[in-house]
Write a structure and sequence with these properties.
277 residues, 1 helix
Length: 277
């Protein structure tokens, strides 16, 4: 599916409701990583109903153990799509017998993409149509073309970050590689996998380029991941509502740190805005 306006042309696929292209017309520049399998085949997967890895690839609910792949199943699921107008498209994934086999909850996940001037607004809405509380985490994972040695600018200085240990979140923070409010990437920035910031205060992240900036407005996302394959010419800016299991966690899903919970009949909304200047 394609949407466009006078500034941007965007492509999305119903497989995972995943962004495939973010093309700026004036500069004739593609800003989204195009999934070179040499480094990483994905482009902008959606993370639901979990962000990151679970201990032993599973979780516990009401005493029963359920398996789950890292980042959940939404990124590999087929969504239904509806074109609202030339500037906006929406996708939906609903619970089914297949999803309930390893995630025994009723849900509706709607994913909306909308263009406004030089911005792409990306909203996700999770609704609980069932009769029991719905636990989940959700996140964005877009990868942008970005050279090694490029500068990532933050609004606040973050002197600590968390790393992963076998896919799980370390319990103690490490010293952040950010220098004041700027991270200059190099071949070693992501040797220990993602940089993860919990409860940060940034409302936007800016990727500095030659004569242009790409700004990701986080709109209140409480956690943030930064990641790339070492040596790859892209950067993932990942606003999250939730994160991987901490090392040593083995409790019930409702005890998992960072989870969101929706009571029956209610919904959860989150949104990011990608702006090209």
């Amino acid at each position: 599916m394609k949407i466009e306006n006078s500034h941007l042309k965007v492509e999305i696929t119903s497989q995972g409701a995943e962004l495939q292209s973010l093309y700026h017309k004036m500069s004739e520049r593609e800003y989204l990583w195009q999934g070179d399998a040499k480094f990483w085949k994905r482009r902008a997967p959606l993370l639901f109903p979990f962000v990151g890895c679970l201990s032993n690839g599973s979780y516990i609910y009401e005493g029963q153990t359920y398996s789950m792949t890292p980042h959940g199943f939404a990124r590999d699921s087929l969504f239904t799509e509806s074109l609202i107008n030339e500037n906006e498209v929406e996708y939906e994934l609903e619970s089914s017998a297949l999803t309930r086999s390893n995630y025994p909850f009723d849900f509706s996940l709607k994913v909306n993409y909308r263009l406004e001037d030089n911005c792409l607004i990306h909203q996700m809405r999770v609704a609980n149509p069932g009769d029991k509380d719905l636990p989940f985490s959700i996140g964005y994972h877009p990868a942008f073309n970005f050279p090694i040695g490029g500068e990532i600018h933050f609004e606040t200085f973050m002197d600590q970050c968390f790393y992963l240990e076998d896919g799980l979140l370390q319990n103690k923070p490490s010293i952040s590689p950010i220098d004041q409010k700027v991270l200059t990437t190099n071949d070693f920035t992501f040797q220990r996998d993602a940089l993860i910031f919990k409860h940060h205060e940034n409302q936007k992240i800016t990727l500095k380029g030659e004569g242009h900036d790409l700004i990701v407005h986080l709109n209140g996302a409480p956690s943030l991941g930064l990641w790339a394959k070492p040596g790859a010419p892209y950067i993932c800016i990942e606003p999250w509502y939730g994160y991987a299991d901490p090392v040593g966690f083995d409790g019930d899903i409702f005890e998992k740190p960072g989870m969101e919970v929706i009571v029956p009949g209610q919904e959860f909304n989150c949104e990011i805005k990608i702006e090209i200047k």
